[in-house]
UniProtKB/TrEMBL annotation:
One Gene Ontology term of the molecular function aspect: L-threonine 3-dehydrogenase activity
Full protein name: NAD-dependent epimerase/dehydratase family protein
GO terms (BP aspect): L-threonine catabolic process
Residues annotated as domain NAD-dependent epimerase/dehydratase: 5-242
Transmembrane annotation, as ranges: none
InterPro entries for the chain: Epimerase_deHydtase, NAD(P)-bd_dom_sf, NAD(P)_epim/dehydratase
Family: Belongs to the NAD(P)-dependent epimerase/dehydratase family.
Length: 319
């Protein structure tokens, strides 16, 4: 085994923090960051970087060969809200990139792959509360359809060709270091920025839109834990349900108000509300907890204080 790690989509919200953590764990020169554009200074300065389009199969192969890569984290994707505006582009990016990596692993050129799925694989006919690992999946968004299709292909490549692919259905990920790009759950980050800057926020989701969420540190821990678990422990080769916290915009606003008592929230739901309505409110992640020992650390209270602190510092640095 051995060999280097390649992150595709390293400059995005999750990719940035994942790359930095993997560099801390494995050494800077062992973790190759790549993205279609350059990212945060800390990421660009801390180790190798390649400008790479995730749909460019030939270039991915060249980078894998050049750095003797054996593990890939494919973090490039078009998220739910943006994908509704560019369906074919989203489909091409989300599917082509996955096939390129699966095929490299099938050819024996990679040992292990991480590919993120999402709660978007579920749809309006899925049981909404405590959504089970295995259940009805009829996604209604382009993003959800691409993630569900991707899950089927991951399982197929594992079963048919022995590809060691591992995956998690991310809930909304909350963080302050790198902004998210085009998701339905992004309100839960915007709210902190607006609360600190302006003392008010207009939510694009309705007050009672409950969604599963998770603080970034937990998401990074889950991603690294599933990749480091012994192969025989990974029994689900489509994607694992993963849960931490679930809340509505109203509940989050109330938690923020405990710290910023003058904070005001109003609601102007847009097209993203119908996406949120089609997704689960909460997730049953027993399989992840039992199979590879998943445990979350951040509850609503801890996430809120960490975000207020982090966003506050970031805004001060920028000012
Ligand atoms: C989105 O809102 O599109 C993403 C997701 C839940 O996968 N954050």
């Amino acid at each position: 085994m051995g060999g280097r790690i390649l992150i595709i989509g390293a400059c995005g919200q999750i990719g940035t923090e994942l790359t930095l953590k993997l560099r801390e764990n494995h050494g800077n020169d062992q973790v190759i960051a790549s993205d279609i554009r350059e990212g945060a200074e800390e990421l660009m300065q801390s180790g190798p970087f390649e400008l790479l389009n995730a749909t460019d199969e030939l270039h991915i192969r060249e980078v894998v060969e050049k750095y003797e890569v054996r593990e890939v984290y494919l973090m490039a994707a078009m998220l739910s809200a943006t994908a509704e505006k560019a369906p074919m582009k989203a489909w091409d990016l989300n599917m082509d990139s996955l096939f390129h990596i699966l095929n490299l692993a099938k050819e024996g050129k990679l040992d292990k792959i991480f590919w993120p799925s999402s709660i978007a694989v579920f749809g309006p006919t899925t049981p909404k509360d405590n959504t089970p690992q295995t259940t009805i999946m009829e996604p209604t968004t382009v993003y959800g359809i691409s993630k569900q299709t991707g899950e089927r292909w991951c399982e197929y490549f594992h079963r048919k060709f022995g590809v060691d692919v591992r995956s998690i259905r991310y809930p909304g990920i909350i963080s302050y270091k790198t902004l998210p790009g085009g998701g339905t759950t992004d309100y839960a980050i915007e709210i902190f920025h607006e609360a600190i800057k302006n003392g008010e926020y207009t939510s694009f989701l309705a007050e009672d839109a409950a969604l599963p969420m998770m603080y970034m540190d937990d998401a990074i821990k889950a991603t690294i834990d599933i990749m480091e678990a012994p192969a025989e422990k990974i029994k689900v080769r489509s994607s694992y349900n993963l849960a931490a916290i679930s809340f509505t915009p109203e509940v989050l606003a109330a938690e923020i108000k405990k710290h910023l008592e003058n904070f005001q929230i109003s609601y102007e739901p847009d097209f993203r509300q119908s996406i949120a309505e089609s997704w689960p409110s909460s997730i049953d992640d027993t399989a992840a907890r039992e199979d590879w020992g998943w445990e979350h650390e951040f509850d609503l209270e801890k996430m809120t204080t960490t975000m207020l602190d982090g966003v506050g510092k970031t805004l001060k640095e920028k000012a």
